[in-house]
Specification:
Elements lengths: L1 E2 L4 H25 L5 H26 L6 H6 L1 H27 L11 E7 L4 H4 L4 H12 L5 E7 L3 E9 L3 H12 L10 H14 L7 E7 L7 H11 L2 E7 L5 H14 L3 E4 L5 H12 L16 H26 L2 H24 L6 H17 L1 H4 L2 E2 L26 H9 L1
Parallel strand pairs: 2-3, 2-5, 5-6, 6-7
Antiparallel strand pairs: 1-8, 3-4
Length: 428
């Protein structure tokens, strides 16, 4: 016989656990993204989320055992708390790390650059085309957002190239603030434009600083044009596997400049973005940087893989399995194979919905809100598993059959002594 079961307290505590898991996860992402490998980061995220949601459900059943019955609370709830960490955190940590490894397989895609050189045009024409110095502010903002495992160098150029900051690691927040200060105090735009010389200085800086092959990139922002032998300038970049990414600022009658920036990017495997207004420069260089990074399961994809059907399908499938594992963890702590079946099915449904939310996104510019929606859906739908998928009952007086037989849950007492002795003992 099957019966649908409901525990309102469990739904509420699961929601609270999901909210706490989201908050803790956002803290992890803000503090450890870039400094911790994506596989470990996702392992921690899902492990901590599972621990908090499972703990909430277990606490609710301990207080009000609607699913397991009062006998479970008296005899076996304590055993469930012993299994809480291995059944939730450890299981989902391992699953999250493995799934992130699968999701992050490159299949021939180049590794993300380690070193970036930012080249900012400070020729006379920038006074008119970038009067509010959006290029400087965009560079400072990008440096602030770069992960701690990166190195960055910043130079301004006209007919000469001036280094505001040679390549330096970003593990120390003081370095980021120092670069922002140097950008703010940079000289006013003056002089002519020499893009070829600036690019020559940039690759020399990376070579001197020991940038590994295929791990360096330049982001060049300019509104102008200069006589440049594209083949000669880009040859050293091609040989080292360094990409030149360019941002062209709208400038009347500067079709040659746009064409030059496009040629430089195409010759090195980089990207070109056009900013029709100076205010669009931060968006342009932000997209360039994001497109080069190895993403994790819970962030937006950008660049060539933004619309990848394969990546979309893989993420949804992974979240489905994550939800199933979360349901399995509840079955383990409740020590009940029939509840485990309902929670496994319910968790899988919850994971599927969460994956669709992550993939489809919400009408907002804040990815954290999308993650919040996915996390809360995962927790709430999981808590409704025994309503969505009826629980099979064993038909014996002891209630549901055990998930872990070794614990003895669901066993009838051994029949010893005579019938009269047994009857006498029962009513004493």
């Amino acid at each position: 016989m099957k019966r649908r079961k409901w525990n309102g307290l469990l739904v509420g505590f699961a929601l609270a656990g999901g909210l706490a898991g989201f908050i803790a996860g956002e803290w992890l992402l803000s503090r450890l993204s870039g400094s911790l490998h994506e596989t470990l980061l996702m392992g921690l995220y899902f492990g901590l989320f599972a621990l908090l949601v499972t703990a909430g459900c277990l606490l609710a059943e301990t207080i009000s055992p609607k699913l397991n019955g009062a006998n479970w609370r008296l005899r076996y709830a304590a055993e469930g708390w012993k299994w809480l960490v291995p059944a939730s955190f450890v299981l989902l940590f391992a699953g999250g790390a493995l799934f992130q490894w699968v999701y992050g397989l490159d299949f021939g895609r180049k590794a993300a650059p380690k070193d970036y050189v930012l080249l900012l045009d400070m020729s006379e024409s920038m006074k008119e085309n970038d009067p509010n110095m959006q290029s400087r502010m965009a560079a400072a903002s990008l440096v602030a957002e770069m992960s701690a495992d990166k190195r960055v160098g910043v130079a301004i150029f006209n007919e000469n190239t001036t280094w505001l900051q040679p390549l330096v690691g970003l593990k120390d927040e003081a370095v980021r603030r120092d670069i922002a200060g140097k950008l703010e105090g940079a000289p006013e735009p003056v002089g002519q434009t020499d893009i070829g010389k600036a690019l020559g200085q940039a690759i020399e800086q990376m070579n001197v600083s020991g940038t590994p092959a295929n791990r360096g990139a330049v982001i060049l922002i300019s509104d102008g044009y200069s006589e440049t032998n594209v083949a000669d300038v880009t040859a050293p970049y091609v040989s080292r596997g360094f990409a030149i990414h360019t941002v062209g600022i709208e400038s009347p009658g500067n079709e040659e400049g746009k064409r030059l920036l496009l040629q430089l990017a195409e010759a090195t495997g980089g990207t070109y973005r056009h900013a029709e207004q100076a205010e669009r420069i931060p968006e342009a260089i932000g997209h360039i940087y994001a497109a080069q990074q190895n993403g994790h399961l819970l962030e937006e994809r950008s660049g060539p893989e933004a619309d990848s059907v394969y990546r979309a399908s893989l993420r949804v499938a992974i979240m489905l399995v994550v939800g199933g594992l979360l349901g399995l963890s509840l079955g383990i702590v409740f020590d009940n194979r029939y509840l485990a079946r309902s929670f496994l099915l319910g968790g899988s449904a919850a994971g599927l919905l969460a994956g669709l939310v992550l993939e489809g996104g919400l009408p907002t510019d804040h990815p954290a809100l999308t993650r919040a929606a996915a996390d809360l859906i995962l927790a709430v739908v999981l808590s409704l598993s025994t309503v969505l998928f009826a629980v099979k009952e064993s038909g014996v007086g002891a209630g549901l059959r055990p998930f872990r037989p070794a614990s003895g849950y669901g066993r009838l007492p051994e029949r010893t002594g005579t019938q009269g002795e047994r009857t006498g003992k029962r009513f004493r």
